[in-house]
């Protein structure tokens, strides 16, 4: 576990930008986001790296409006650069063609990958879907039933939350981070709170760390149960879908009892704790979780022996380990491909102790592995919750670190869909720039990649095995 | 015309036209119960049809008259198919005869009309569903033909009435050919009615659709025709299975009772099958149907090897 340190900011010139980022990568830094911001000196490009000792941020002022691209070094930076280009007008020399991400030009040629030949044809799905699904446009290039290529168009739900938070008191930013998406409300707010506290030179005390960890795991619990239900529905196995949907409902009712909100809204505060759970409530919650755990384990056995279900999962939507690393996949999807990374094991601001990332039985990177990793992680989550709930919860607080405030804080938190990174540039006690890069945002390119070479009717299943959110990527 | 023939005619029309949606409703209701849901009432398909009947249709651009007439063609050929069915071994002559091959042809005509309509609208989802349906139909029609050939062997006739009569003979159950036909018929039912594991009638995922795909563009009365046709197909398949495969008693009243019980039983079986089975990968379906073909060929071989008695 890295020591509790604020992010180290390295300011470089635009000419040194690329070399500096390359240096961090060579030193073992993991790319976890790139964003543009506008300061007093004009445009600024920022790149985040997670290293074993602490987080590093490379900042460069861009006077000419253009900077070297990083996309050939980190494929994961592709979407970040496109977003910075569309929303800040920052140009990236060498990023060709620069396809728009926020902008929605009418002509498909402007944003899709050109496919030549006589046999391929395109199937367009969305942005309006049947069922309760968010807005996303999928453009498949297909030959027969086989997917050659998939282009994603998102940002239909772009609400400008990050810009709206600018200039407001830091504490107000929590609401903007929370509204990015309901299913990751705790992750987003904890990441935001951590970023602010890190920028202000504060650290949470034991009570606050415990409370936030409890909330994060409660969020993971209902999300994972929901994802298993979605995968069952994806193969048309209604009994499994119904059973896990019922478990999810029970988990959400437990959320309601413990925190007063089914989606755990308004449970995280800046530099303070609000959670107060007495001994009687924790005991009751433990009992409920114990029975829930036993029942869901029974269902897992049934799923394992349902041949028609298992038959659909193997070798579908395969994401290799190399591709997962290259595309910057995070969370259960990356771990299912054999990437041994879980931000919970690098979270000194939370209460995970010596956490070891979960591994599926076979890290094959397909739908089967993504389902199995959720089984393993659910077991971990139940164990963590059981341990946390042995003692009651008192509102916690923060203590001062010796480090002086450095004006830029980074929070990294493991959401049910992978690492969510929040960077906050402070301007005194107001937000200068808020950047939220959620697990869903990081994983969408991996979905498009995993869909290739698969059958078109298998795509809904592949998509559900990632079960990413649109809103918190669009924010 | 005997009383039995008259009664059979009434059941053909009333059961087929009015009773068919109840089969779909029953399966939906049972499925919901088996999955731990309260589910819709058995009468829900009737409410759906009434709702659709009162709504105006939509016409996508571009479209030609094919899109407009396809639902009527599909419904009409399904109605004609209903009139071919033997009920309790009887059936009035509506001027169509009772030949099994005509039945296959009428079902194919309905499918053809719907697929043409999908082509007409050039909607991606409709075309995908239609294309898959045609791909399946190559195997399903072949399998249905083989099953009917096996069942036609005892009396050397593809006339559905005489095939139904053959099922009253007690000795058919000592013949492997009849067993093979019975098992293969189950696969035909699942595939023709668009049930799991072949197709998921409950799905909202357009990319996975087979039978629902070509229906996506339709609304109002046209959609009502198509939904009724889908329900009537359940009736046709289940009645055919009961009449031709289940050993029937000789008296007409008892045969009608067996038919009613059989349709009910098969509906329950479909609901159970759809609950415990996930949907199959699309390209595996031909394999499943192919295993039925292999079974039929074995049955045929056993017949000519002397199993026909």
Explain the layout of strands and helices.
The complex is a heterodimer of chains A (475) and B (309).
Chain A: E1 8-12, H1 17-26, E2 30-39, E3 42-50, E4 55-62, E5 66-68, H2 77-88, E6 91-93, E7 121-125, E8 137-143, E9 146-153, H3 161-165, H4 173-178, H5 185-200, E10 202-204, H6 206-234, H7 238-259, E11 268-269, E12 272-273, H8 279-305, H9 307-313, H10 321-326, H11 331-336, H12 367-388, E13 398-400, E14 408-415, E15 418-427, E16 430-437, H13 439-451, H14 459-466, H15 471-474
Parallel strand pairs in A: 1-4, 5-6
Antiparallel strand pairs in A: 2-3, 3-4, 7-8, 8-9, 10-13, 11-12, 14-15, 15-16
Helix pairs in contact in A: 5-6, 6-7, 6-12, 6-14, 7-8, 8-12, 13-14
Chain B: H1 3-34, H2 44-53, H3 65-84, H4 100-121, H5 124-152, H6 160-166, H7 176-192, H8 220-244, H9 252-276, H10 285-307
Task: Please provide a written account of the structure.
With 475 residues, chain A is of the alpha+beta class. Chain A contains 15 helices and 16 strands. Chain A folds into three domains: 8-93, Beta Polymerase, domain 2 (2-Layer Sandwich), CATH 3.30.460; 108-153, no CATH class; 161-474, Cytochrome-c3 Hydrogenase, chain B, CATH 1.10.645.10. Chain A has a four-stranded mixed sheet, with helices on one face. In chain A, β5, α2 and β6 (91-93) form a beta-alpha-beta unit. The longest helix of chain A is centred in the middle third of the chain and has 29 residues, at 206-234. The model of chain A has no long low-confidence stretch (mean pLDDT 89). With 309 residues, chain B is an all-alpha fold. Chain B has helices at residues 3-34, 44-53, 65-84, 100-121, 124-152, 160-166, 176-192, 220-244, 252-276, 285-307. The two termini of chain B are 34 Å apart. At the A-B interface, β7, α7 and α9 of A face α5 of B.
């Amino acid at each position: 576990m890295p020591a509790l340190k604020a992010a180290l900011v390295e300011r470089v010139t635009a000419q040194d930008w690329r070399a500096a980022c390359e240096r961090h990568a060579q030193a073992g830094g993991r790319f976890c986001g790139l964003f543009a911001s506008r300061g007093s000196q004009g445009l600024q490009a920022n790149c985040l790296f997670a290293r074993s000792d602490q987080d590093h941020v490379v900042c460069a002022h861009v006077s000419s409006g253009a900077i070297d691209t990083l996309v050939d070094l980190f494929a994961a930076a592709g979407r970040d650069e496109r977003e910075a280009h569309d929303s800040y007008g920052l140009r990236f020399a060498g990023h060709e063609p620069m396809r728009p991400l926020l902008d929605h030009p009418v002509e498909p040629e402007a944003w899709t990958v050109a496919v030549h030949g006589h046999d391929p044809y395109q199937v367009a799905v969305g942005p309006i879907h049947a069922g309760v699904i968010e807005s996303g446009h999928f453009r498949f290039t297909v030959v027969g039933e086989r997917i050659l290529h998939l282009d994603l168009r998102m940002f239909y739900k772009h609400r400008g939350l990050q810009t709206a938070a600018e200039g407001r008191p830091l504490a107000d930013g929590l609401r903007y981070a929370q509204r990015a998406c309901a299913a990751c409300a705790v992750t987003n707010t904890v990441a935001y709170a951590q970023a602010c506290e890190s920028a202000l030179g504060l650290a949470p005390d034991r009570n606050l760390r415990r409370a936030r960890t409890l909330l994060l795991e409660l969020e993971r619990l209902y999300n994972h149960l929901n994802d298993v239900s979605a995968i069952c529905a994806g193969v048309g196995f209604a009994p499994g879908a119904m059973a896990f949907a019922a478990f999810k409902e029970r988990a959400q009712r437990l959320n309601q009892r413990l925190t007063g909100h089914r989606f755990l809204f308004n449970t995280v505060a800046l530099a303070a704790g609000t959670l107060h759970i007495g001994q009687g409530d924790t005991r009751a919650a433990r009992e409920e979780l114990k029975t829930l755990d036993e029942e869901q384990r029974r269902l897992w056995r049934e799923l394992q022996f349902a041949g028609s279900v298992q038959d659909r999962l193997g070798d579908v939507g395969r994401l290799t380990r190399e591709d997962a690393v290259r595309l910057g996949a995070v969370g259960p999807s990356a771990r299912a491909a054999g990437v041994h990374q879980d931000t919970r094991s690098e979270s000194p601001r939370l209460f995970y102790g010596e956490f070891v990332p979960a591994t599926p039985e076979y890290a094959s990177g397909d739908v089967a592995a993504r389902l199995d990793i959720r089984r393993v992680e659910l077991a971990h989550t139940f164990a963590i919750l059981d341990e946390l709930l042995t003692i009651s919860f008192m509102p916690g607080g923060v203590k001062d670190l010796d480090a002086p405030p450095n004006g830029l804080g980074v929070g990294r938190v493991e959401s049910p869909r992978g690492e969510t990174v929040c960077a906050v540039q402070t301007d005194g006690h107001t937000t200068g720039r808020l950047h939220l890069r959620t697990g869903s945002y990081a994983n969408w390119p991996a979905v498009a990649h995993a869909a290739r070479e698969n059958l078109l009717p298998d795509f809904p299943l592949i998509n559900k095995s990632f079960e990413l959110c649109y809103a918190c990527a669009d924010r | 015309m005997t009383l039995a023939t008259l009664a059979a005619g009434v059941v053909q029309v009333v059961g087929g036209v009015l009773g068919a949606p109840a089969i779909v409703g029953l399966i939906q209701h049972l499925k919901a119960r088996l999955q731990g849901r309260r589910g819709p009432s058995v009468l829900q398909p009737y409410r759906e049809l009434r709702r659709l009947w009162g709504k105006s249709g939509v016409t996508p651009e571009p479209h030609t008259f094919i899109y407009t007439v396809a639902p009527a063609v599909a419904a009409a050929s399904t109605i004609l198919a209903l009139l071919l069915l033997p009920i309790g071994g009887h059936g009035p002559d509506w001027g169509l005869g009772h030949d099994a091959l005509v039945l296959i042809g009428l079902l194919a005509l309905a499918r053809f009309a719907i697929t043409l309509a999908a082509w007409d609208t050039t909607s991606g989802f409709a075309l995908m569903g239609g294309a898959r349906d045609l791909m399946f139909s190559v195997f399903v029609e072949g399998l249905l033909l083989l099953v009917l050939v096996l069942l036609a062997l005892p009396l050397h006739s593809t006339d559905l009435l005489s095939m139904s009569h053959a099922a009253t003979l007690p000795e058919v159950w000592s013949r492997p050919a009849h067993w093979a036909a019975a098992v293969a018929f189950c696969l035909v039912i699942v595939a023709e009615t668009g049930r799991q594991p072949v197709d998921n009638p409950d799905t909202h995922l357009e990319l996975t659709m087979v039978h629902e795909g070509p229906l996506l563009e339709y609304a109002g009365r046209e959609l009502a025709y198509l939904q009724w046709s889908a329900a009537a197909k359940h009736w046709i398949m289940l009645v055919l299975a009961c009449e031709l495969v289940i050993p029937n008693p000789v008296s007409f009243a008892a045969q009608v009772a067996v038919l009613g019980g059989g349709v009910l039983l098969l509906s329950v079986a479909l609901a159970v099958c759809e609950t415990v089975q996930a949907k199959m990968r699309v390209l595996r379906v031909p394999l499943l149907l192919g295993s039925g073909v292999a079974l039929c060929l074995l049955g045929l071989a056993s017949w000519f090897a002397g199993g026909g008695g």
